[in-house]
Amino acid sequence: MLEGKNHANSRLFMLKRTYRLLKIMAFVAAGSFICACFACPSLSAQFVDALGRKIDLHDRPARIVSLAPSITEILYFLGLGDRVVGVTKFSNYPPEAASRPKVGSYVKLNVESIIGLAPDLAIGTVDGNSPSAVKILEQAGIKVYLVNPRNVVDAVATIPLIGMVCGAGREAEAAAEGLKQRIEKVKRMTEGGARPKVFLQINLRPIMSVNRNTFHHDVIHAAGGINVTGDEVLNYPRVGIEEVIRIDPDVIVISSMERGGEYEKARIEWFNWKGIKAVKEGRVHLIDSDLLDRPSPRLVDGIEEMYRIIHQGAVR
């Protein structure tokens, strides 16, 4: 036990030492940029994240590591892509983000890679990032700011929080306001109208859907639809064909991470079940899963696309 403890302490010491050395090198290499940041109005000294943890920052972070694809999207949405020095696997939007160094997946972070990038700040999520990985990063001297969006409203509210901690609070507030207005526009278009029953399929085999405790449910509701599996106990329940026939949805929407032929094949397979209203009326559609399950600005794109599918008309 003592030998294991000494090994762990030695590893942490080396990580800290490596981080400090890399930090100095990064500071020197980016000297002119950092000096420009010093000329800007100083940030508030302290920020409180979603877990109530206090993060002290004295200057705008010039080197940021994103610990989730949604965080990556927000940073680029705010025009901060030039400060992003590392991202997680599947950070594929915008396309230029894919070329950034990878630091593992958001559920399995590579802490050595993160430390090696010598960031001023790492931004992650409570629901996804490993608490133990976050703790190691903090022990190595890296500032980690966590957010915890649980629904569409939270996702939009997260944008100003990230903007503020990155020194772009004013721009982030304006960007979030624009997203809110787009959501409200869709809601106004659905007021007083019929709400079609929507069955959302998020997995091909087995067939799975979502309950009300998901971003997907929020998107369907905001777009003027009824999530027919909203009252299920599990967040992502398995649903048999017989149950879908019984529910008889007006619209079937397939959102899956699987792409290519399998994705389209799943849509075509529904047409074997002619007794379902959505099938009889040809209302079986595909949607990009990234528009529904990432708490990023593109959730609003998802609401607009879901509205188009449900109500058979574009947002005007």
Kindly describe this structure.
The protein has 316 residues and is an alpha/beta fold. It folds into 2 domains: 139 residues, Rossmann fold; 120 residues, Rossmann fold. 45% of the residues lie in helices and 14% in strands. The strands form 4 sheets. A 4-stranded parallel β-sheet has the order 4-3-7-8, with helices on both faces. A hairpin with a 2-residue loop joins β5 and β6. The N terminus is likely disordered.
Give a short overview.
This protein has 316 residues and is of the alpha/beta class.
Please report which band the strand proportion falls in: under 5%, 5-15%, 15-25%, 25-35%, 35-45% or over 45%. Answer: 5-15%
- Major sheet size, sense and barrel closure: 4 strands, parallel
The average pLDDT score comes to 88
CATH superfamily of the largest domain: Nitrogenase molybdenum iron protein domain
| Rg measurement, Å | 22 Å
CATH topology of the largest domain: Rossmann fold
| CATH C-level label of the largest domain | Alpha Beta
Shape assignment = elongated
Helix count, DSSP H or I runs of 4 or more residues: 13
Number of strands: 12
Structural class: alpha/beta
Taken in chain order, the helices and strands follow as HHEEEHEEEHEHEHHEHEHEHHEHH
Head-to-tail CA distance between termini: 66 Å
Low-confidence stretches: 1-9, 11-41
CATH architecture of the largest domain: 3-Layer(aba) Sandwich
Total domains: 2
Kindly state the percentage of residues in helix. 40-55%
Instruction: Give the strand line-up of the largest sheet.
Output: 4-3-7-8
